[in-house]
Structure formats: structure tokens, C-alpha cells
């Protein structure tokens, strides 16, 4: 054999050895007889079939080996686990069944941990999410690092826990606390988990595995009690109190989430455990957790989950190639409510913020707006009073443009544009800003390509439209020119994501996605009012459909004023009198006439390539328009309804009412192929 052949063979053998050792789950035995089982699936240690099979294999081995006294379950790479890989649910939804998915049976697996002959302690560092957290509940004790975070977000994916979480958590911390935990939008800290009874101690970062090994050995030696969560009753409320808690929870779920069934199913499953015992509850939980994955609600919520992530990705721009620059100082030009809202959003994320106004009176006005916003955040417990005081220290104001030179990013947020002053202001900002600073306009009316701003600033200018109440709305619509520097794009998106925003990219064009959808919805409403549908009925129907009526604000073109000016859509261009026969519209008809034109406008936005995908429009409709997230967004919902039906109804109405109801497919035949290509399943 030649030298090169030997080298190739050696390389192949080394590669095989590396593959053999690179398991998704690893186990090693310490000298004291404690077996440490660790999840090794970076970066988030998600639970897939390989991980679950590995856990089952190593637990079975550790429980039967004579030289193993106790077991510690832990993660790796600074995290325990982020739970089940949610793409598995997406796969099941596409297939329509989980028949070809080889799940590790939940109840036997959890019983192997909980009822096995060796004590098991979970060592939790970083995030313990969803099914991963449920798995630790079958352990006989749990220790968390000081940076640990705990969450079961199944409710927000349209499903319920599936590894016994509805049964073991109430037995560790009571039904009331468990319900609060399930409905929480933010993960619990280690301190919150300890106070509730979820974990048994907090250990300094980096030392939790060692502490867990000591605890596991002490349980084995009988120095510490051996607790099985599913059998505990000492922390569960009394029978009567438990039933009352569940009754109140059921009433609240019906009131707060009238269109959702999985919160009620979750409560029913918890009640099963109270009435018949933890094992019976776990069996019912497993049944429903599988069944709920394929419901329309779960499909809609998971679609939004994935869409939120996909819309913020910029093709060709990654952290692997470039590193975003850190921004420490931002400036906002504009002394109205919108400017104050944007400035508040920056302050909440600890950015030094300068606000610019034309005179001292206007400056005091915007600072007053900002302080009121901070007080509102304190009242809503978004921040503490002490934190609010610190944020005020990051705010400064000026009437001099030159004071903005230090800013890494400057936002023009003038609500009005008297005598075309906006472009003049942008030119001034371009002249006074430092090299590589980023210039942003919050207006949807500015045509970026037409701005007479010299290079290099022209490659650093963006349209970044914050929603009203920018500090508590996630959505930001972002547009930029083809010549915009990739580094600047990365910087802007990194900043927005660090502020917990969802930046959605759109093509530079007059009007934004949310504005266009909102405008058509408002016109639909006007049409219905014009033909005699009561305003109150419209409001109730939209609310019952699930629209966020606090977020949904119709374009304040005064409806009554418009009607008084005879802006009508019926044939003859005249308002219907009370003596004319009004059409008999069912509630479903009214809702369709409100929303189908919005679907039509969404397709126009797609056809004009203002939005890069249907997901962009869905996220804008959910976060900006108030469309219910459990319906997946306006276009996802339209696909569920059926595009043929929607366009046939639009065609029917366009013959009865003038103008905007005519469907895209009739107005632009070239769009027909594009629509059918993007939505083939239902057309």
C-alpha cells in the first residue's frame, strides 16, 4: 500500500472514530458512581428523535448497571435544552399525521426516569424550555444555575405539554402557580422557579453539575428524601380548592380566548389528574398533545412562529461574513407623539438618546411625552421605578443640529411635512452626521432613491417605519436602496433585533404594507356602513373574529364626515336612504366583505413585489393590523378559506359595488399565474 493510500485510510478511520464519539447524547461515569448524562446537540440542544433515543438508551444502561449509584441529567454549551425541535411539528402538519415519526413513548420514558432504581437529579444551566423542562420534572430533584431560565411555551404554539407537565408541575408548585406559568409570555428566572417550588436550589454558574452529583449521591445514601413528582400531594391544593381554581381558569380562558380550544383542553387534562390521579392525567395529556398538532390553530400559530424568523433574514448578509457594529448613541428629530414613542423605544433598551426640536417649547413637549411613556411602562410593570429613573438619565435634548453629530443612528420622525421640509431636514442631517452613521426616515412618503443626498450617506440611508406606540409594538417595516452597504443593513437589523423588534423588509415604494392593508380595511368598513350595516355590529364581528381592537385603528379619515360628503360605493353614487331595501347580510357575509378585499390588496402587494413573500405580509397583518396570530396572518388564513372562493366573491361584489372590490386576477391577468404559483394547494 502506498503512503498516500495509508494516509487516506488513516483519515477515513479517524473520521469514523470522530463520528462514533459525536453522539447527540453522551454519558460518563464518575469515580463516586454518579453517571452524568448530557445532551450534546448544539447550539440549542433541541430534542429530536436522535436525542430522545440517545437519552432512552443511556438511562436504560445507567439504571441497570451495578456500578452506577445515581444519575445526573444535564445539557451542554451553556444551555440545558430549548425543547422539542419545532420543525418536527411542521413536518407532521405537512404530512397530516405523525404515523411515520418515531416518537419515544412519553409515559414509559418518563417512568424510566421517575420510577427507576437510581435517583436522578437535573443540573440546569441556561434555558430549560418546553418538553426539556418537562423531562426534568420526572427527576427526583432539580438544581438551577443563577442564569437559568424556565418556560413551557406550548400555549403559544396551539398545543399543550406532552411529557406530563400538566401533572407534575401542579404537584411541585400547585395548580394556581402552574396555570400562571403556562400563560406567561416571559421565561421564569431561577429565583422565580425556586420560590414556586419548581427547582430545589440555585447554584453558581459553572458549578451546577458538581452540586447535582453531590445531591444525587446524598439521595442514594438516604441523606436527602427521594421524591417522585407524580406521586406528591403535599403541594397540591385541597380537592375543593383545586376544582374552584380550575373552574375560574376555565371561565377566564373562555373570556380571554373565546376562539381557542387548547387552553380549555389543558385545564380539562389538569382536572383529570386531580380527579383520577397523575398517571390518568398524563395518559389523557399524551393523547391530546398529539391530536392538537394538526389543528388549524396550531398550524396558524406555528406558521407565525416560523414567519417571524424568516422575514428578518436578509439574503446574502450573515454574521459569518460581517460583525454588526455596536451603537451606543441614537438621535430622534421630531417633537410629536411618534418621535417621543420612538425615543422611548431606544431608551427602554438602554441606548443614549438625543431628541431634537426646533425650539425650547417643542423640546420640553417631546421630553414630557417621553417621561409620560416611561411612567406608563412603569405602571404596566415593563420596568421598575428605579429602572425608569436610570433611563431618564440616558435622555438629552437639543435645538441644535450640530449636537447630533455623535449619534450612530439618526431618525427623522416628523409627523407633518410643512412645505416639503422633510427632505431639507434629511439633507441637513446628512451634512452634520459623522462618517458611517446611519440616517433613517420614519415616513412612508419619502422616496429614498430621489433624495439629493451625496455619497457616502446615500449608501447609509433607510426607511424604518415604527408602528404607533413604537415602544410596545414589535413590528418595524424597513426599506433600503440596492446600493445600500451590506454592513449598514446588518447594523440596522442587529440594532432592531436587540430591541426585540421584528424587522420586515419591503421594497422602496409609496405606502407601507400595514398602511395599505389598513386603508383597504377602512374602505371596506365604509362600504358596509354605506349600505346600512351598523358600525357597532362591524366592531363586534371583528372582535369576535379575534382582531386586536386596541391595535386595529382605522385610518382616521372621519367615516361619518366621508359619508356626509357622499363618498359611496353603491351604484348611482348615492347614499342609500332608509326607505330603500337594504341587503340581508349574515354575519359571515359582513366579515367576508371586510376581510376579502384586504386579501386582494395583500396579493397586489405580492404582485408588485413590495413584499418578498406571503410570510412578510402575514407578519405585518398580525403585528401591525391586529389580525389574530392563531389564524396565521391574512394570507395564511385566506389559503385555509380557499382562494377560489375568495376571488369568486370579490367578482360577485365588484358587479354590485363600485371600484376597489374588483379582484386582482380580473384587473391584471399577468398576476393570475403568479398567484396560482404561490398558492397552488387551494386554487
Automatic annotation (TrEMBL):
Native species: Adiantum capillus-veneris (Maidenhair fern)
A Pfam family hit: ECH_1
UniProt-listed PANTHER family: 3-HYDROXYACYL-COA DEHYROGENASE, PEROXISOMAL BIFUNCTIONAL ENZYME
Positions of the 3-hydroxyacyl-CoA dehydrogenase NAD binding domain: 330-507
Protein name: enoyl-CoA hydratase
Swiss-Prot/TrEMBL keywords: Isomerase, Lyase, Multifunctional enzyme
Top-level division of the source organism's lineage: Eukaryota
Gene Ontology biological process terms from the UniProt entry: fatty acid beta-oxidation
Sequence similarity: Belongs to the enoyl-CoA hydratase/isomerase family.
E.C. number: 4.2.1.17
Record bears the keyword Oxidoreductase: no
